[in-house]
Amino acid sequence: MDFSSFDTRLENTVYKNLRIGFIWASKISLITLLLITIVIWVDFIHTKNSNLLLTTINFAIQGLLFASSWLFFVHNKTLQHYKIIAAIYALLFGITWGGTIINLNNLGHAYVIVEIIGNLLFLVILLSFYTYRIAVYLAILPILIFTTWYSIEDPRFNLLFSFTKLAITLIIIESGRQLLFKWFTTRITQEHDNKRLLSELAQLSFTDQLTQINNRRFFDFAIDKQIINAKHHNTPLSIILIDIDYFKLFNDTNGHVKGDICLKSVAVTIKNSLLRSNDTVSRYGGEEFVVLLPNTDIHGACRVAKRIQQNLAILAINHSASDISHSVTVSQGIATWQTNQRPNQLINNADSHLYNAKELGRNQYCSA
Known about the structure:
Blueprint: H1 6-44, H2 51-75, H3 82-106, H4 111-129, H5 133-153, H6 159-205, H7 216-233, E1 237-244, H8 247-254, H9 256-273, E2 280-285, E3 288-294, H10 298-315, E4 330-336, H11 343-359, E5 365-366
Helix pairs in contact: 1-2, 1-4, 1-6, 2-3, 3-4, 3-5, 4-5, 5-6, 8-9, 9-10
């Protein structure tokens, strides 16, 4: 089971989270702009105010920006340079909302209204962009500058109050961002560790503990999958059933410890004889092994069987009790999948050819 590194997983999840945040922030912005536009038209419809139409046009331009951003992030589920895009969007978000604050002030709205909108925007920005600090501050700073400026301009507040408010706001925003980001990374770490543990457990459940190659359970799972692939893509599929010749005599003569070493050596030799990554060998049971060869016809399977035979001959594990050779040999039965053939039928076919190889004198492979 493949799983990405923690850094890759974190990077992907940061963008996924930002993307959702951008979509949400755009929706909130559109709704808020609409409500503000309705309110100011209700307030100023019966008064002569030259800024009303200009403000409405500015809001419409902002609304178009947020609608475009919404559509952009809905369709771009993956983005290579997302940090650059995130920074640009955050800056535009902050500048456009800063412009809204200016427009509201020009229309004569009170400082309290500016503060309410500013606090709402700080909350939206924090919840939407917290996974990327740069985006948070690019969005917040323009709004914070304008709201602070209006607090300085308000005769009710002195300079100390304005800058104290600015410092406290920054502290609250950064504390909230760190808290949210810590929760975020903790969840990603837990998810990553859980997937890693599941991967390790799956690997253990598919591994033969003695030989450290695939086990029977893996083969049963893999052959079903490969038959489905062969049927779907109309490609050949072959298996080789392998049995160590006179292995019982080897154990009786050399002992079970050396018998285990022999099994490990044969398993490694068979595995090393497979040249493609999708070719697999599994311990089928006892001294039997099975090789699964996707996209391989009978001729290709015979070449693999011959290579296994040659590599075992080079390995030359001493087997003094064998009637056919002084070293360990194997008999091999080869079968190729036929249309609508079930897994057990394919295995029985290979087993039949393995029996024939033994009947013909062992230390050979048989395919028909």
